[in-house]
Write a structure and sequence with these properties.
The protein is of the alpha/beta class. Helices cover about 30% and strands about 20% of the residues. The protein binds zinc ion. Zinc ion binds next to loops.
Length: about 325
């Protein structure tokens, strides 16, 4: 994904620390729930497993093998249906890019659904690496790609153990991170393709979507991402309200963060209000985690407690929904 620096410069970085940043009445805070606790060790192992394939760059063998594994994991965890969506898409840079999107549908019979998504592909180049000699190296993508996907695989495992009251569609989307900084349309290619081929007959879309991206950085804190707040403030209120209710306010800060070009944008355009849980205001960089698009985006720099915070918040949101 890409950081839209021009917009962040114009946006207030921090709202009143105790206030609600949307300026509206705070969302009703759900009571903490008795749910199966999110297993951060399991999520971490899912991150490690992805990294072990090697960089999951589209057209690589590691990418192909990881896709098969992700598909089998969604099946193993008891998704009612797993849809493997393959295509060759326009990369908006004068070429093509292969896409393998995987959708696992849990409690498929429920008319009320939500969408969870994370990109699983990794960037082919470490173009932000401080060492110029490393900038052509593909990244491990432990945080950028594997962290959100790892959290969603652990959530899938939990959904298989305990059916939620609503339907949950988990989209592991491809071809997010081969974009060019010159062209906003060149990111999120897989999700863009998915929104053009969604499996929602009768026009009943998921009520909302939650994207998880870069949720495993050391010391990661999650600000209200700018576009999420602009396009889907009520959903941001719901997720951040849940985080506060379960004691995660130290990581889910009630303040506006940067503006990020990411998979939530095409989902919003398709009519599903969608937010991005992402580290988008790092104290050191003013934008993403320092490992972003560098060779340091590896397993050593994953913070299991950040995975836990993101995962436990989302799983509480899921089990707190009623049909
Ligand atoms: Zn990226």
């Amino acid at each position: 994904m890409k950081f839209a620096a021009l917009i962040i410069a114009a946006a207030p970085l921090f709202m009143a620390a105790c206030g609600n940043s949307s300026g509206r009445t705070p969302a009703e805070k759900p009571a903490p729930l008795e749910v199966a606790a999110f297993d951060a060790d399991s999520a971490f192992s899912y991150v490690a497993r992805q990294v072990a394939f090697g960089p999951r760059v589209p057209r690589s063998e590691a990418h192909s093998r990881c896709a098969s594994w992700l598909e089998s994991e969604l099946k193993r965890h008891g998704a009612d249906t797993v849809i493997r969506q393959e295509a060759v898409a326009d990369n908006r840079q004068g070429g093509t890019i292969p896409v393998v999107n995987l959708l696992g549908r849990f409690n498929q019979a429920s008319p009320k659904r939500i969408l969870l998504l994370a990109h699983w592909d990794t960037r082919p180049v470490a173009d932000n690496d401080p060492d110029p000699d490393k900038r052509d190296t593909p990244i491990d993508g432990a945080n950028d790609g594997a962290s959100g996907t790892g959290v969603l695989l652990e959530i899938a495992r939990q959904l298989g153990n305990k059916t939620p009251a609503i339907g949950v569609d988990i989209l592991l989307c491809d071809a997010e991170d081969s974009g060019s900084h010159d062209n906003d349309e060149s990111w999120a290619i897989g999700t863009r393709y998915w929104t053009e081929h969604m499996p929602y007959d009768g026009g009943i879309l998921p009520e909302y979507g939650i994207l998880l991206d870069m949720v495993g950085g050391r010391g990661a804190r999650f600000h209200r991402e700018y576009f999420s707040q602009r396009n889907a403030a009520a959903i941001v209120d719901k997720i951040w309200g849940t985080a506060a209710a379960i004691g995660e306010a130290d990581r889910f800060l009630n303040a506006i963060g940067g503006a990020v070009t990411d998979d939530h944008l095409p989902v919003n355009e398709a009519g599903i209000p969608c937010i991005d849980i992402i580290e988008c205001y790092n104290r050191q960089t003013g934008s993403f985690n320092p490992t972003w698009h560098t060779t340091a985006d590896n397993l050593d720099n994953i913070d299991p407690d950040a995975l836990r915070s993101a995962g436990t918040t989302v799983i509480n949101v899921i089990y707190n929904e009623r049909p």
